[in-house]
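so my prof wants the structure for this chain in the tokens format not the other one, which i didnt know existed until like an hour ago. anyway here's the sequence
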Amino acid sequence: MVMKNFKDIYEQEYQKLNSQQKRAVDTVEGPVMVIAGPGTGKTQILSRRVANILTNHQTHPEEIVCLTYTDAGASEMLDRLEGLIGEEGRNVRVSTIHAFCSELILANPELFGKEPTVITAAAKYEILKEIMDKHVTEGNLLYKNSGNRYSSIEQLLELSAKMKRENLDKDNFEKEIDKYFEMIDSSEKGNEFYKKFKYSRASNGKKQGDFKPDYDEEQQKMQKLLAGVEIVEKYSDDISDHNYFDFDDMILWTIEKLEEDDAFRKSVSDSIKYLFVDEFQDTSVIQNKLVDLLVEGEEKPNIFVVGDDDQSIYRFQGVSADNIQVFDEKYQPTKIVLEENYRSSQAIIDASRQLISHNPREDKALVAAGDNKDYDYQLPILKSYPNAKDEMFGVLKEIKELVQSGVSPQEIGVIYGRNSYGEEFAKILRDNGIFVQMKKEEKNLFIDPFFKKILAILEYLCQPSRNVRELRKIVYFDFFEVELSEIAMIRNLKKDEKISIPTIAEIDKKLEIVRKKVNKSSKYLSPMYVLRDVLKSLSIDEYIMKSKEKYHLVSVLNELYKLMLTECLIHPKLTVKGFLNQLSALQEMRISLPIEYISGSPSNCIQLMTAHGSKGLEFEHVFIMKCNDGKKKSESWPGGENNSGRFTYPPSLNGKDENESQLKEEENRRLFYVAMTRAKKVLHLSYSDDSTKTHFINEFEEFIDEVDVTESFEDCQSVDEVIIPKFTNDVLNEILGELSLSVSTLNAFLKCPLSFYFNKGLKLPSETNEAMVFGSIIHEVLEKIYISADSSQISELTSKTVLSLEKALASFESIFEEKSYQLSSDRIKKDDYIRGIRIIENLYKKAGYLKDGVIAVEKHLKGIKLGDILNTTVDLSDISDVELNGKIDKIECEEGVIRLIDYKTGKAENAKKKLVAPSEKEPLGGDYWRQAVFYYILVTNAGIDISDKEILVKYVFVEDSTSEDGFSETEDIRITQEDVDTVLEQIRDAVMKLKEGNFNCGCGQVKDDRNNYPCDYCLQALANTAPKFDNTEALEVATYQQARDNYKSLSVSKLNHFLSCPKSIYFDDVLQLSQPAGLSAGTKEKAANATLKHAPTGPVFGTAIHETMERIYKEDLKLKKAIEYYDTSLQSHQEEIIDTMSVEELKEYGYRILTNLFEHYIPDSLKGKNVYLEKELRVKIGDEYSINGIIDKLEFDNDLIRVVDYKTGSAQRGVEELAVGRDYWRQAVFYNILLENSSEIDTTGKRIETQYIFLDDDDAKEGYSIHTVNVTKEDMDLVLTQIQEFWDKVNVADFTSGCGKDDCDYCRLGEFVDFQLLKENVEAQSNKKN
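here's what i got, hopefully its the right format
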């Protein structure tokens, strides 16, 4: 085997550099600053400079620290270093600044406390919610008693980050606010504060100098800010109590310890001989402070920074645009400017240079030097379109033409200002068959259809008994492939009736098995365990494998699994029902939890991104879309920011400079420059004429080729057609035979015909929400306020008296207690209780409002046939047999008037558009208008004596904060004959559609926009609809390549897993389904293990014992301290305990084992300098295969090197694994190979043996047993062959062979993957690259 000569490789790569790049690589001593414009090869010089130092300057890789901006940048750097200097390159300390700090924190528990945990987004929200529920009460300016109660939660988290970064507390805020108002109070005419807050002249009873209303508003804003500060301080205390830290904490804690502990700072600094900082223009003020501390005290520190002041675009994250200048002044470095651009054509370089020249900067004369230097001098192309929609369809057409002409889709990048625009354009592309990869696509886990389906199943399983009504919702899911007509056939079955349809009965049976297990198991079943059980027992894992969206579905599944783990960590022993409660609390906050996608980026996808997201990328063709400025200056490109609801700060704390407007303008120009310089060959610019073209384009107009757009795109529409199968005639007739039309059914149908399909056709249960439950409670209370001598006459127009306030409140208490269980949280219950009391008290408080009289409440009118309707010219003959029905909250009869009253618990201000009659703008009229007319039709045709009485309709809004009374009502609504005929026509048209079965097409409103919420019925239908286009093949290849690139080295556990079933690698690392779905290579084998006479300790016990054994030898612990540490370790992993002994049992079991070991083994075993603990070894076999391993304990006993590995679980089973060819035998051989090939361990003249210690061997006298394995050369040759087999198969995506076991999950699910096609596609892609 020929070994690579890395010295030659480095020299060859070095000679490819230009003179300035070589200078940057060769200047290794003292501070160096490289100004690297876009495309000038800064990544190359970073890796080559590190390689130079390691190759030619006698430095250990661990003495070099390289801080990158992203994890991807760190990974790429390590790959480059390995390619330049071999395996040694991976020992360079390359990481992001946050990861560097995290490593210091975890490595120094004596300074930072015991093993702090990085806080997850879910944990942040949950802790903050608990604090808000406790401390944000009525009277607090952050308090809301309904709707979006937690609307300030994101602003509180922003405030928390600001307080950390700037080291602020409540005292600071109070002092600065006091100073602010002192400045306002003392301001004089001509002053900015005077102009804003005081009257400049007397008018309308106000004197000159009196405060404007703005002053009171500003005071309230500051009080709201202080309320937020109080909550944040409590939140920070709680975070500390939980021993959590976040990204801000990582750097702040590290800085704090470096500043206060000289010994710690010196030890850190001394360990760094060379410090590199990439993307230096993007380091924040705090990060710069950390960098300064790392080299503090050195006169000429070896610090090397690379950056470009023209690409500083993160000022909003606390980054200063002056980083480069400040570093230059502080360190007086050797300064090197790279000006040869290897990316773009000269035309693009010239245009972008002209733009950025409008900023104050040091000029860089970039020159095209790469493959595109001789490309045609094609100026950036500018096109204008009449409106934003035309622009989108125009760019779509251009993209299609480019792809058809042979341009690779991955060489087309689309850039825009804001993510919402990208999401809209991405949908248009996808609808037209263009595959898209959208960087940072913000998909919310909580609204994902697959997530909601899995959640619905988990909720069903937590019910105490079988429920056919709820079952209908479950079997509708496309997991089960049940015909919709079959669901319709069980729509009238009661809660526990028998199901005769075989497909549904089988699903019911499977669900019942799991439901009973969840409800009746004596063992603790974690949410993760139940999730895995659901996926397997209901064959949802197979559904995933068959789906066109399997990578999306697995991404969602992984997020759900991680969320379960997070909640179990916060709440030990959390059940699946408890998890659902916690989830409900998170959803109550209306937050968004992002889905992290597992898939790679296919070569057939157009790349979409914001201008910020484009940093570091490059494409042959770049489209910068929506190059528009808004109407206000704050809305200039890249677009206005949504600052609604954010805290207002006093001027001294708002982080704005005096020349804020100018600085913002300069940063936006840099951002546009970054977007432009992503283009290699052609830059396409576009804007729409419905708003102003961005002024940035005018700044380089002489470098633009403006092209007229002559084509019209008016006919191009992106409409969501939502259609599901019609019912059979038999089912349709059965449904219509039950039809009795209410106004709510009519309103819903007119909005979306699918409402009838789901509500009446399938009778799927609707989800309850707070508004529905609270409305129901209030309506029932208002019904009971009126009493008659005969309770049976309550709904009849008879004389009634009003209940006393005391009894009305008692009635509310009783009804609320009975129904409030449906409310999802204690906070909502508390709020709604207070709301209910206030509503009742307000109604009674207004004198004479509630009075005795001839009244009917909850009057149910039904059986009114359309053929019997009086006084109309509308032809109803075709629907004469259809009945109308409705329930009227209150009918009152007085002085020639019958008044129909309907109570509304919604917001009064939202009612205006619902009350309008039909018009050109609202052709159907509003729902409340139609309801009023419908009730009029019911009453005038119900046989009620209405002679000589006018019928009027009124709506009462029982909660109206804008009214002094606390409630409000509409004027009396008079219904005309025209109104009646219009509604009867709407009824006729609707019923005719129903009779024809035309209610299977939805309204198509699936986007959440300013005017409309998405239609639940359309979303429900789309949730069962597969995408139009299938890109699975390309996704498979891209995700495989991503997984392959992540394989830096092979561990023995991965090798064992591969040999148990080669297909496992695909499911573990490509599709990443194994963990959430609990996949294994043989469940029967595991079941057999359970028959062995050994306690079911499980993996958590093994982890805790291993950690304890390491600590025993590391710190020379005695038994008492060892047991304490074991307790701590067990506690930290307890959320992972699934279907094994309880924590208490594991504690007792562990104490016994540790006691045995201290009595018989630990005192006489090797310790101290002759021992390595948790020794990690990484070697390369020959020049091809990297392998690695962590050895529990490595003992150097004279001429013997002893590998010690601790094993828990069945010793009987473990001994079987020592046989040749089994896992423990292979582990021993693997560790021998590591040692024999390691440059760290000298094995010359030494013998190696592997000693397995079975820590809990029940058959051994001492309670443990030792088994020694001596490895032969034949053993090593065999395992080396297996290692080579692994790499040979993985390198070409060969997952075609499996283990063949009947009960192997990988083989079972592998039946749904064309592994041969994947292998061929990977080969084709590889050939194309080469």
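also thought this was worth mentioning. The chain is about 45% helix and 15% strand.
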